[in-house]
Amino acid sequence: MTSGYKKAFWVNSKAIAQNPEKHIKEIVEIGADEIFLLSIDNEGALYPAKLSVVAKEARQRSLIEGAIREAKRNGLKVHAWIVALNKPNEELITKKREWFVVSKEGKSCVDEPPYINSYKWLCPSNEEVRSYLLGTIQELMETYDVDGIHLDYIRLPDLFLPEGLRERYSLEKSKDVYMEKYDFCYCKKCREGFMKEFGFDPIEIKFGTRKWYEWHAWRAGKITEIVKAVNVTVKSYDSSIETSAAVFATPGYAYRIVFQQWATWPLDSFEPMIYHEYYDKNINWIGEAVMEGISSGKNIVAGIFLGFLRNREDILNAVGIALEKGSNGVCFFVYPMPHPELKEAIKEALSKF
Ligand SMILES: [Zn+2]
Question: What residues does the ion ligand 1 have nearby, CB within 5 Å?
């Protein structure tokens, strides 16, 4: 019997593929009853897919099959966790360069990725990208018996970074600094698409002007369209399969920095990544973020970053405050756990609801 709340982990399938029995047993023992199993990462599918690029280590054998089998045998719900638009895969870069986002400076992320080398993103306005993602998800559902489809990296690159991350990239900490090299996407599809609706080229729009906000909203709208299309694909295949997404911590941050207007997305649940230290906040902020999410009327399951919880008290506080503010459970990032010595504390926290 489950309590009705989600008690879940995001699970790195590559780390448990050698011995799924042992790891799934441990997850069950800790008290979780659902897993978000990494099934398609930024390199590609973690199984020999036909419609999607495949990660190198998964060309010969599936890295998720064993985990799914063991999870099912132990009564866990399995959501396929899918890295949607961040795709630094060499084959795609070579064959489909035009699918990748272009900055306001006119440079493809393939040549000049923002922030880190793996920040190579597919453009959400491109219909081919959309069909590619939908085909990939369809194939996954036909291949594996999953209970949910979970979208991650379903956004554009960060227009700004949250406060706690700025110093790492030599950015000024105390304010948002706009830079054209971090502003995406100005590919042909985006420029023509916007021009068709608004009558002018978005490349001419200055940051912060009124037109800017229309352009910002237009881009968010393209991501929403993809999410809606995924939801239709999943539900028409099997209406009992749950849809969800790992979104930025609050609707406000998500919209402003990564163009996710997630409060309008038609998914069954949302696992906002309330990774407090990235936002330079303390554990109490997890509760505030949960409240903001819930005010959108959505079903919120707080995503909690275990690496930022350093003792038993931190874990009990983080989970306690999320639940107290109305979260429909918790999802921990990540399994295998960064502080395995805190396993008992996690178990204790999950046993309280
Ligand atoms: Zn584009």
Answer: 123, 125, 185, 187, 189-190
What the chain holds in terms of domains, given with CATH numbers, is 6-351 (3.20.20.80)
Spatial distance between the Cα atoms of 250 and 303, rounded to a whole number of angstroms: 11
Phi, psi dihedrals of residue 112, rounded to the nearest 5°: -130, 80
Query: Are 72 and 78 in contact, with CB atoms under 8 Å apart?
Result: yes
| Cα(96) to centroid(ligand 1), Å | 13
For 4-49, write each residue's pLDDT tens digit.
Answer: 899 999 999 999 999 999 999 999 999 999 999 999 999 999 999 9
Cα dihedral 270, 276, 282, 288 sign: negative
Strands (E), the chain: 6-11, 34-40, 77-83, 148-152, 242-245, 269-270, 302-305, 329-335
Report CA(123)–ligand 1 centroid distance (Å). 5
